[in-house]
Amino acid sequence: MARLMENRLTQLTSLRRGTALAARKTSAVSAITLCSATLSEDGRFEPPLGPLYIASALESVGVEVDFRDFQLQEDAHCFSGDGLARFLLGHQRIVAISCFVDMLPAVLDATRQLSEREPETTIVLGGPGPTAAARRILEEYPWIDAIVRGEGDEAVIELVELLRGKRTGSIAGVIYRNGGNLVDGRARARNRSLDDLPLPAYHLIDWTRYDTARVITTRGCSYRCSFCDVTALWGNRSVYRDIEMTVREMEMLRHQYGKRFISIVDDTFVLNRGRVREFCRTLIARRSDIQWGCFGRINLMTAELMALMQDAGCRGIFYGIDSGSQRVLDRTVKRVRSEDILPVIRLSTRYFENIEASFIWGYPFESLADFRKTYDVAAQAALFAPKVNVQLHLLSPLPLSPIYQEFPKALVEPDPADRSWLLLPPIFMDERAERLSTMVRAAPDIHPGFYSFVSPSKRAKRKSLERSVSVLNQVVGSTFSDPRRRRLLKRRVKCVEREVLSEFHSPAEQVGAGLAVSFFRRCRNRDEFDAGKKPFVGTRGAAITRERGRAKGTISESQANSLSRAKLAAQ
Ligand code: B12
Ligand code: SF4
Fold it and tell me: Which ligand 2 atom sits nearest the alpha carbon of residue 230?
């Protein structure tokens, strides 16, 4: 079997290497299958904005788009490409796929299968996943024909022209196969007039399948946090959309598609505070009646700004706090003062309903003392649960992030004990992912995000995290035997919440208690949302839900099941 596969691959390689992309498919390009392969994080669905912008661009040059959103497929997962390969059946001769790093191995596995089935298919990748390692992907995986790096709205049109035989040579922002060579275009200058772009192709999706909507008001972020790879995607330039036009788009999503809650997905929405004020005032003046969430930044928040954002409908905010240690904050070029973190969190609780406070641990230069500082801050933030939900992630080295460039040799496979804290799927630990883990091990430079870093005193750090999980389990477990606590599954009972939060004293325990209190809120919110009573309030990285807890092992299978039973009993 393995030999057969090897032969097939060799044939495929020579076929790909021997044929120029443009020469192979110059027939009229009238239709393309465009697939978003990004999964939903917590079982709630938002339309995939980037692919919808690409769909609009394609339609503008007369291409019919067969649009598919893999997240909507029942039991879609990222541990093999089989499901995605099936999902793509009946595709057009050209297949374009969008993904983030987490799905890249599955996308490569699926496209290999697809290309074995139908070698004449042209396969194009785009989005944050393939962008950073585009050249290496084409070198390593011969069935991929082209990759669009970063912003794709204009580049994809030029790629269509190439496929139509209307142009030759390199294309800025695109790398493609030409016989045995790779034609690597220079970096594409960022689009400065986003208002000239057509709106995302919202007409291509079935809105009844999506819970909330999403807009982007600014592309790019001018910070350079060393663990982040947005620079690879957008460079360091922030380009703004016209405020009035953005607000009108939000109103359309509200009125035409019935989505009252909208996620603003700008990397750092509050980057330009003058603009945020104008945006809020426009929403208020137009009485838009929209609720929204966004990404904040500790060093840019003031009480006045928060109050205005609240008046304009902001309900949820996400803070990438990333460390409680000033040494680590400085080392990662975060441009945040550690002493500002808690006051801003505290202030945020006055104005917003849901605050995600995301921390990272496992930096190659993070001492145990640094880690403890992070835990101290996280524990104090956790005391504001359920308004504040603490997230703790093990650092995932993204390709092209400065930190990975600095420590390329410090990659280690994550320990099974770290499973609950991984940002990307645990493909080295999941038996369904055997093929993908082999692929990742063969090219760690393309997929470094699945690894973690060698970091000092990891065992001691893990102990604190394990203590947090054990308290979380203990509190969730106690709902079965304690009728007072069981009430938290149904409604907010502040005195019981306070009791849970004051029961524990070490930072690790307080974090666990805070996670439990936030977890109860998620359960309640989910029910209310499902019953159509109120919009779900959340932002990216939304907290621990039962499903996610179960999937990641934060909450044991039996506890998750018993929790459902307890909820039923409480109703
Ligand atoms: C919303 C969002 C999510 C949603 C995605 C839901 C969905 N179905 O799409 C959720 C919450 C699920 C999510 C999850 C994750 N996310 Co996220 N997410 C975002 C966010 C905030 C916005 C994405 C967006 O809509 N952008 C706006 C559009 C216009 O940009 P775009 O999608 O990049 O599309 C442009 C280009 O990439 C390109 N393009 C895109 N697709 C295609 C396809 C083709 C064929 C072509 C030619 C071009 C092309 O053209 C588009 C227009 O110019 C971005 C940050 C950001 N501001 O982009 C992070 C971001 C994409 N996420 C990131 C990460 C790391 C993740 C996670 C993997 C880890 C995590 N928890 O953060 C998880 C995945 C785990 C999982 N699935 O459970 C990273 C990506 C890193 C990388 N190199 O892949 C980003 C950049 C944030 C960051 N700075 O770390 N995320
Ligand atoms: S982590 Fe956030 S603020 Fe820092 S560079 Fe990335 S997007 Fe910008």
Answer: 6
